[in-house]
Each structure stands twice: as structure tokens, then as C-alpha cells.
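Continuing the batch. This is chain 6 of the set; chains 1 through 5 are on the previous pages. Same settings as before, nothing changed between runs. Recording input and output for traceability.
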Amino acid sequence: MTLSQSSPLRESRHKGPSLLMLALIYVAFMIVGAVLLGKSYRAPHDTVAEAVAYVANFGGSLRIGTFCELSSAVLLGLFVAVTVSRLRFLGVRAAGETIALCGGVGATVMLMLSALCGWSVTRPGIAETGGAVNILHALSFAGGGPGFVVPLGLFVAGVSITAG
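Output for chain 6:
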């Protein structure tokens, strides 16, 4: 009986997209989004009049920037899935693997929330409603700021500690 008949051979190479390719595309979307949103993004504590004027002046760049942000969130989700899959492929069974998965999913969801709230501000009729603009900008800022960074830190810590 040969080895192939008695037991299936374990794959020696993980099947899945390249982490480097996913990371580079993610970074490209984040840079384009940051450039577009960076020149137009306002602080979430501005007055209602400033918020409405902001959306009127930068609606187009806000739409494209939030599209790039949403696209980067999808790529981040793929990166998280492939990374955790590779850890499992390598036989890692530790708490860090689950921490990485939870942190990565949390960061992806928060980045998507930020992008969708930012995009919603540009919808017709929303810019005239000062309260809605303030709420959506506050949610966008919170989701893309601390709501994104904290779970991303858990993802990085989970992968680093487990891989180390």
C-alpha cells in the first residue's frame, strides 16, 4: 500500500490569495481615500452651519473617499480571513487566533460603518438636515477612528503573539 492510498497527503502550501497582494491593494484604497477625505474631512464638533456648508462644498470628494474606505474595509476583511486561515493551516490552536479573528472582524465592521455613515451624508435631502449631518459625521468619525483602531490592535496583537 502506498502512502497516497493509506492517508491523504497534507498540502504543503496554503491555498488562498496572497497576503501581500491584499495588503497592497488595501493600502492603495486607504491612501486614495485618505487623500480625498483628508482635504475635505471636518471635525465632528463643528457647528450645524459649518457641517451643512462642508457637505455642499465637498460632497463629490466625500462620495469617492467613502467608496475607497468601504472598498478597503472589504479588503481588510479578506486579509483577516486569509491570515486566520493560514494560522489554522499551520496548526496554530491558541487563544491568539480567536482574538485575531474577533479583532479583525470588529475592525472591518467599524470601517464599513464609518464609510456608510460618511456616504449617507451625501444623499439628497440629508445635507439640509443639520442634526442628521452631525449624527452621521459623529458616527463616521467614531467608527473610522477609535472604533476601528482598537479592534485592529486586537487583530495585530492576536496574530503577533500567536505567530511569535
